[in-house]
Amino acid sequence: MEQISVFDSRFAPYGQVLEGYDFAELCRVMEETTPCPEDGTVYVASVPELEALSVAAELRDRGFGGMPIQIGYCNGANTRLSCLEYHRTSELDIAVSDMVLLVARQPEIVGGVLDTSCVKAFFVPKGTAVELYATTLHYAPAAVGHGFRMGCVLPRGTNGDAPKITPAGKEDRLLWGANKWVIASANTNEAQQGAYVGIQGPDVDLMKG
Q: Which residue windows are transmembrane per the record (predicted)?
């Protein structure tokens, strides 16, 4: 699978590279204090130590126009696509190590199905931060030959418990958390836990090229 640089113009429909931020302190704190599993991934939505850093206020004000934010992380080891999610807002991701983002676009969900041929792989070099637009489907990063660490910035409360709703539209079946809509592949942990299964097509795995 081709890995496209986030600096390539082909990334433009999915997001943009952030400019003018200094993430050196955040990267150092994450490297020193956050775990990186050798098998699987760990996601923590809100880490007070990261939210206390000087860059946090800048991310709140420049990145989200003053809205309350949470800064957490997604670390671990992964090479394949299991699910995709989207939010009503952009997400800011900071590559503390080299990583690959597997993404697609919300309009590519047709009739409740997303074909894996729509998924693209974008390489994000260490120290680079990107904005993923609200319509960009994404999930845990991937990496080949090493683990990854990624800082994750979202509006506060995102990825918390889903509200209790009575489904009234097709999108409602994808609601999986607060400000979190998920579409899963079959035979994944998320599918077994009740996530909507709608990803079809050949497996996406960076180990398979």
A: none
The Cα-based distances of 188 to 4, 83, 193 in angstroms read 26, 8, 9
The whole-angstrom separation of Cα 77 and Cα 207 is 12
Count of other CB atoms within 10 angstroms of residue 63:
19
CA dist., res. 21 & res. 85, Å (int) = 26
Pairing of strands 3-5, 120-124: parallel
- Of how many residues is the chain composed? 209
Collect all residues with Cβ–Cβ distance below 8 Å to 38 and sequence separation of at least 6: 77, 147
Residue ranges of the chain with pLDDT lower than 70?
209
- CA distance linking residue 67 with residue 202, whole number of Å: 39
Residue of 123, 131, 127 lying closest to 63 (CA atoms): 131
pLDDT at 131: 99
pLDDT digits (tens, 9 = 90+) for 37-91: 999 999 999 999 999 999 999 999 999 999 999 999 999 999 999 999 999 999 9
Domain ranges, ordered by start, for the chain: 3-208
- The superfamily in CATH containing domain 3-208 is Jelly Rolls (2.60.120.10)
Structure tokens at 81: 């696509």
Q: What is the pLDDT of residue 96?
A: 98
